[in-house]
Amino acid sequence: MTTINRGDFVRLGSMFAGSLVLGVGASGCANQSHGAPAGSVSPETAGFKPNAWLIVHPDEKVTIFVNKSEMGQGVATGMPTIVADELDIPMANVIMQFAPAAAAYVDPGFHLQITGGSTSTASMWMPLRTAGASARAMLVAAAAKQWGVDPSTLSTKDGTVIDAKNNRTASYGSLVTAAASIPAPAKPTLKTPDQFTLIGKVNKRIDTPLKVNGTAKYGIDVRVPGMKFASVLYPPVFGAKVTSFDATKAKQVKGVIDVVQIPSGIAVVADNSWAAFQGKVALTVQYDNGPFANQSTETLKTRYLELARTGAGAIPALSRGSKSVSGKRLEATYFGNLAAHAAMEPMNATASVTHDGVEIWAPTQVQTLAQASAAKIAGVPVNKVQIHTTYLGGGFGRRLYTDFTNDAVWVSKAIKAPVQVIWQREDDTQHDWYKPMGANSVSGVLDDRGNLVAMQHTVVMDSIYQGLGFPLPPSGLDSVSMDSVVNSQYGIPNFHAYYINPKSGVPPGSLRAPGANWNNFVMESFIDELAHAAGKDPLEFRLALLQKYPHSANVLRTVAKNASWGSPAAGTKQGIAFGFWNGTAAATVAEVSMNGNTPRVHRAFVVADVGRAVNPTIVRQQLEGATNYGLSMALASIITIKNGAVQQHNFYDYLVMRIDQAPEVHADIIESGGSPTGIGEIATVTIAPAVANAVFAINGKRARVLPFTQAYG
Questions:
Q1: C-alpha 238: how far from its chain's center?
Q2: Cα dihedral 76, 177, 191, 671 in deg (nearest 10)
Q3: Please, are residues 217 and 391 in contact by the beta-carbon 8 Å criterion?
């Protein structure tokens, strides 16, 4: 039987879609780790490497190393753009390569090599600019030395050092040998914003041609010599343990090579993935299901709501002003269900454990932790573990965890051969690190002029930070699970917030704008309710609370203008919401109608103040994508528990938004100057409350539950 891999399928398909392929330019095209564009020099060959971030090759190509994971958010283009601008080279000369896991590539904020929290561009802005500027200065110094002139008399453009006075030039490629002997400047001169030639401009994405022609390598595409395939049967109940198993029938499946037990479950190893999947079905396994087997969505919900009502075990998270304020009091309780990440590429990793060390090929967001964990499993020093980062077929925070890379290391160690452990969609759905369940009790007080003068907000949510493997402070407060509450920009003079960690037993995950993706729904829904109770326009009510944050107020005013606030399209009503996530302010206006009990979003207007946009097109893409992702979760995405196990399996019962449900999204950005802020997650937190507030304008019903199928059904 003839077989064809995924990449070849895409390439063959593209041959019959000439108009699509011909419409995509190749400028800036480069492979992520090997097989650089025709005519270029691979990073392993001779070149000038002034620092860890780039290599200038004799043929004028420049390899730029990216220490972040590309999962669609655009870092494979944005980060090389920053370096290329300061270096003064055209994007056509860039070869993008994902950096190895190494100390040189750790994020200066996290002190880990990690991609998350919408921090990539913000945290790497200055290191990458400095790297490019330093290399440029060294190349200029090399040319000046050759010509016997003062470096200050020279300029650069498009990968060339220019001596205008003497009418001569030297290409960067011609200077690689000379530049290698030039010391790096202690503090290179950076460009001023008016000198930028690439930053702020629309540059074609480096990864788009690769994804169109099928050459972009995802984790699932990895093939190494002698590689086997494995699928792991995990205990269905959270916290359950394998007590015994019978692999007799599994080993009878054609193609199955071995069955091994690893800490997370039973792994079936085969010559191909299909045989591994079929062998897994044939296993007979006995479990000790433990105490969580008695839990269900209803038992957890009852407990959460009781904790929110009583405040038992509450930890003070914010204390401002008085707790006793008189006026008109409103109270509400909200409940948010579990949700899964639902990344399109299922979890997978390939590992090879030998006596020399470990090699891992994986679509990971957390290279440092994957490396450290693999070293521990294999019993080797960390520097003996190599991580090859592939493209990620979606991440959304799911790949911040090392469970799937750990499994590959465990299995390879057991079978003494390279192996790719690949999850099925059902594994992804039933063994995720989930958007946590949340129950929030909130109250607000309005004075006799309709001003919000007091708020109390209690959040019941598993610790997202602890779920990532990090210890909580002695107080037990998780600021991530309290996001959009303790860091709210609203000027409420008397504000008290509390955190309760229920430790439910469900793995709590970091999912696109963690904490904020639930808490901001509560805050913005309740703020809207307070505005109506005060008899005030929801926009003006919010603006009055943002007087200390003019940039945020400007975001609200801009989105209101773009959406013609107060004049919705015929047959619709409008809702508005504001959000602030990790340095970025955004606001959304949704135009909504109702189809029975289901909201139908026709148009969504979103505006964000991004400080400075490296690539405005990619920024708008992120706002559009996050809007759709947040709306998808809000409409119908729900994970339910019965007898301790997840009930959903695949996209037929874990519902995500289909294309005919997607609204027309109008994304706009404000560049207030300075450094870039995070953009990949912010729009996720504003769409759901904007829709809920529009539904209230339609029928007077407030959504106290997410998803909306649970609120209006």
A1: 25
A2: 0
A3: yes
- Record the tokens describing residue 91, joined without a space: 């994007």
If you search the block for the tokens 């100057």, which residue do you land on?
A: 673
Question: What are the residue boundaries of the structural domains of the chain, listed by start?
Answer: 6-213, 219-289+347-422, 297-338+434-712
The owner of tokens 């994405």 is 205
Q: What is the mean pLDDT of residues 564-593?
A: 98
pLDDT digits (tens, 9 = 90+) for 599-654: 999 999 999 999 999 999 999 999 999 999 999 999 999 999 999 999 999 999 99
Alpha-carbon Rg for the chain, nearest whole angstrom, is: 27
Cis status, amide bond into 707, omega within 30 of 0: yes
Residue 679 contacts residue 668 (beta carbons within 8 Å): no
Q: How confident is the model at residue 11 (pLDDT cuts 50, 70, 90)?
A: very low
> What phi and psi, each to the nearest 5 degrees, are found at residue 409?
-65, -45
Look at residue 8 in the predicted model and tell me its pLDDT.
Answer: 52
Q: Measure the CA–CA gap between 386 and 403, rounded to whole angstroms.
A: 17
**Which among 261, 97, 37 has a CA at the least distance from the CA of 269?**
261
The domain 6-213 having CATH identifier 1.20.210.10: the answer here is: no
Q: Label residue 349 exposed, middle or buried (CB < 10 Å: 0-12, 13-18, 19+).
A: buried
Q: Provide CB contacts within 8 A for 440, sequence distance 6+.
A: 308, 333, 334, 335, 336, 457, 458, 459, 460, 518, 519, 522
Q: What is the pTM of this model?
A: 0.94
**Phi and psi, residue 616, nearest 5°:** -55, -35
DSSP bridge pairs for 333: 441
335, two tokens: 């409940």
Please give, one letter per residue, the 3-state secondary structure of 573-628.
Answer: EEEEEEEEECCEEEEEEEEEEEECCEEEEEEEEEEEECCCCCCHHHHHHHHHHHHH
Q: What is the pLDDT of residue 27?
A: 27
Give me 699's structure tokens. 């029928």
Does residue 20 carry a pLDDT above 80?
A: no
Region for 571 from its dihedrals, namely left if φ exceeds 0, alpha if ψ lies in -120 to 50, beta otherwise = left
* Amino acid in position 63: T
What is the C-alpha to C-alpha distance for residues 435 and 292, in angstroms, rounded to an integer?
A: 18
For the four alpha carbons of 607, 613, 616 and 622, in that order, the dihedral sign comes to negative
Question: Reduced to 3 states, what is the DSSP secondary structure of residue 220?
Answer: helix
Q: How far apart are CA 106 and CA 387, in angstroms?
A: 14
Residue 653 in tokens? 């019962």
Highest CATH level, class, for 219-289+347-422: alpha beta
Q: Which fold has domain 297-338+434-712?
A: Aldehyde Oxidoreductase; domain 4 (3.30.365)
For 170-212, how does the pLDDT look when each residue is reduced to its tens digit (9 = 90+)? 999 999 999 999 999 999 999 999 999 999 999 999 999 999 9
* Mean of the per-residue pLDDT values of the chain: 94
Decide whether 6-213 matches 219-289+347-422 in CATH topology: yes
- Residue 713 has what pLDDT? 75
